[in-house]
Amino acid sequence: MKRVAVLHGGMSAEREVSLRSGAQVIAALRTAGYEVSPVVVGDDLSALIAALTPAPDVVFNALHGRFGEDGTIQGVLDYLGIPYTHSGVRASALAMDKAAAKAVFSHAGLPVAPHRIIDIVELADHDPLPPPYVVKPVNEGSSVGVHIIMPGDNRGADIAAAWTFGPAMVEQYVPGRELTVGVLEDRALVVTEIVAATKFYDYHAKYADGGSYHVLPAELPEEITQRAKDIALAAHRALGCRGASRADLRYDDASGRLVLLEVNTQPGMTATSLLPEQAAHIGMDFPALCAWMVERATCRV
User: Known catalytic residue: 35?
Assistant: First the structure.
């Protein structure tokens, strides 16, 4: 029986989401017949290494955010020689750094919105881009720290004063519909439209009961559906991702504009998460999805 250690928790702003993901992964892998060791990760690296000694056959990485999906834990596992799920150091680091990821996407000819990196104090003084625009941390996920600035909005100084995330990206706001596409290695699954209960698909909308609902598959022209899937797969490949990823896009019905926002190399694995829902749509239940990830785990060195 294959021994799988499930890493969850971590040190990022997404710790609670990771704990929830990990709990469901642990149950699913046990259902699938694996010997599972839960490992709650904190800020003590020596304790983590001790928990992985003797080494399991595979690590299932259910961490989110910094240190968990930015290449840090991936480098530790490569050093220890333990196969792990999801992407390796380079792809993880690129995807987590929004500026670097957009440079890769642009080089690959994928559609991205105009953007720039700023010191957040600039926001207190003037609009870094013509509004509407989006302000987001360069290295966070799950919409942590994201704000939409509309014309006439005077929150810039307040946002700057409360900012704790380091450099910020400001990006042209793309009106329209929120789309996401899961990718399993060389296959784009399906397009989901996310409809938030509020105007913005923020952290609450992503993880709270009733915060959003999903239209699966999205009701789109066939051409747009195929373009979204092609973009998601191309972005996965451009970053060098392995295993599962999920691309987030915006689609404007009025103009036909389809824009790639980002790629998540550690898609959520909670009850409201999108990748498991898409996998189920194509006939892969949650234990089977988790097993698929385990069986493709590898070291990246």
Answer: no
